[in-house]
UniProtKB/TrEMBL annotation:
Residues 77-168, 210-302 form the PPIase FKBP-type domain. The keyword Transport does not apply. This is Peptidyl-prolyl cis-trans isomerase. Keywords: Isomerase, Rotamase. It comes from Fibrisoma montanum. PANTHER family: 39 KDA FK506-BINDING NUCLEAR PROTEIN, FKBP-TYPE PEPTIDYL-PROLYL CIS-TRANS ISOMERASE FKPA. It comes from the Bacteria. The keyword Isomerase applies. GO terms for molecular function: peptidyl-prolyl cis-trans isomerase activity. InterPro entries: PPIase_dom_sf (IPR046357), PPIase_FKBP_dom (IPR001179). Belongs to the FKBP-type PPIase family.
Length: 302
């Protein structure tokens, strides 16, 4: 589900069949009442626990519990890994990352295109540097993308204890992939495309604009997972027609027939700030701001 701005929730009252609580003020909609009750619960919790919180512009109560002044600051386009524990205000834990196994959650910061995180956690992530920690108290209306459960009803406020494990820019992710996989980059362009030729054919025909090129390829994300591949030599495109993403096309023009190479490029040469969304499965094939890796063989040209 995509991260959206706070949504206006409407409640339909079907005549006298719906009983209105005695604490509800005259003419008050359900969402307004719940927001007022959430605020009261949070204020009481802050007082009881002697917490001095900053209220953000989003309406979230924020208490920084660990400061790392030199930690890397997250920005839109970065990938952030984080741990969290979610609690009700009676301190019952309702969700968490696998802290014991040090298996944090990962999110690509993409503004309104961000997926896989609630609005409350997203707002907290943006206020912390790598290594920092905070407690967030979030009214239900300010925690979009959270679905109600038996442990944490839809309209309940929530406490998040949040720790930022790491912050990585696209450039850092690309360099880490190259280092981890011991890739020997043979060419790098000004726009960030890396070409690592693994099988050279210097006397073969060069791929040029206007030609139709047939290739085999395996497309990977920086975590090594494969999102697409073709191996029967039938995939083709005409160079210069923008039939494929720029990083793929530009990389192929650096090669000759019979050569093999690894192409690595930033999202600006791939699917950019919006990613690649599959309407049939309602999921992202490629998340926003994701660098791409293609292992490619040039089969033939015509």
């Amino acid at each position: 589900m995509r991260l959206n701005s706070l949504q206006t929730l409407s409640v339909l009252f079907l005549g006298s069949s719906i009983l209105v609580s005695s604490c509800q003020q005259p003419g008050e909609a359900l969402i307004d009442r719940k927001q007022r009750e959430n605020e009261a619960e949070i204020q009481q919790y802050l007082t009881q626990n002697n917490l001095n919180a900053e209220k953000t512009a989003e309406g979230i109560y924020f208490v920084k519990t660990k400061t790392v002044p030199n930690g890397q600051e997250p920005k839109v386009g970065d990938q952030v890994k984080y741990h969290y524990i979610a609690r009700r205000l009676d301190n019952v834990i309702v969700d968490s990352t696998d802290i014991a196994a040090n298996n944090p959650r990962t999110v690509a910061l993409a503004g309104a295109n961000t997926v896989g995180i609630t609005l409350g956690l997203y707002a907290g992530v943006l206020k912390l540097r790598a290594g920092e920690e905070a407690t967030l108290l979030v009214p239900s209306a300010q925690d979009g993308n959270r679905e109600g459960t038996l442990l944490l009803p839809q309209y309940a406020p929530v406490r998040y204890d949040l720790r930022i494990v790491s912050v990585r820019t696209e450039e850092q992710r690309i360099e880490e992939y190259i280092s981890t996989n011991k890739i020997n980059v043979t060419q790098k362009t000004d726009d960030g495309l890396r070409v690592a030729v693994t099988q050279s054919r210097p006397d073969s025909v060069q791929v040029t604009t206007g030609k139709t090129v047939f290739v085999n390829y395996t497309g990977k994300r920086p975590d090594g997972t494969v999102f697409d591949s073709r191996s029967d030599g039938s995939f083709s495109f005409q160079v210069g027609t923008r039939a494929v993403v720029p990083g793929f096309e530009n990389g192929v023009t650096k090669l000759r027939v019979g050569e093999k190479a690894t192409l690595i490029f930033p999202s600006a040469l791939g699917y950019g700030a919006t990613g690649s969304f599959d309407q049939t499965t309602n999921t992202y094939r490629i998340l926003p701001y994701t660098p791409l890796i293609f292992e490619i063989t040039v089969v033939r040209i015509q």
